[in-house]
Amino acid sequence: MSYQQYGIDPALVERIKFKMKNPEVKERIKMLLQGITKADLQNTAKVTRLIGLAAGIFGEKLSGNQTHQILTFILAQKIDPNNTFHLIRLWSIFR
After folding, report:
1. pLDDT tens digits, residue range 27-36?
2. Residue 50, exposed/middle/buried by CB under 10 A (0-12, 13-18, 19+)?
3. Is the pTM of this model over 0.70?
4. Rounded to whole angstroms, what are the CA distances from 7 to 2, 22, 26, 67, 71?
């Protein structure tokens, strides 16, 4: 399932992918997501907070609509960060 089906702008995704190539930014995002569980990624309040913190790390200003689109996408994926198959599936969505 594509992130574009949720209305997420491909230009935003490309900017984020480019910024993730910076080792400092990548390390800060890793630290932010360290210890995240599947239950955390299904909790609307926690995911909204993580989106806001990640946007700050990336230096992106997200509108309320963009935040909602990303939130809906994350909740729909039912991501388990401890499941390698889930992580490979996410990687394939954003290649």
Report:
1. 999 899 888 8
2. buried
3. yes
4. 10, 26, 25, 11, 11
